[in-house]
Amino acid sequence: MTALKLIVTIIQLLCGIFLIAIVLLQSGKSAGLSGAIGGNSAGGGFSAKAQSKTLDAKLAKYTKWVALAFVLLTFVLDLI
Predict the structure, then answer these.
(1) Which of 11, 24, 32, 55 places its Cα 20 to 30 Å from the Cα of 66?
(2) 7 touches 51 (CB < 8 A)
(3) Tens of pLDDT along 17-69?
(4) Residue 79 belongs to what domain range?
């Protein structure tokens, strides 16, 4: 049981470091003071389709999956 717990702990540690790196690589979502005064000019249509293929969209998708893996590994470690 100790070897299994060690392996899962190492995987969880790597998953946590990867999660921190992914979150830090994402750009901020707020526009700051200029966005509050001037409004946000995000349109729909083609720009929404193109935005789904950006690096930020991919990083957001990876963040969800890595966070889910981190939570599941935490539950597994609790059961061991």
Answers:
(1) 32
(2) no
(3) 999 999 998 887 765 555 556 555 555 555 555 655 788 888 888 999 999 99
(4) 1-18+55-80
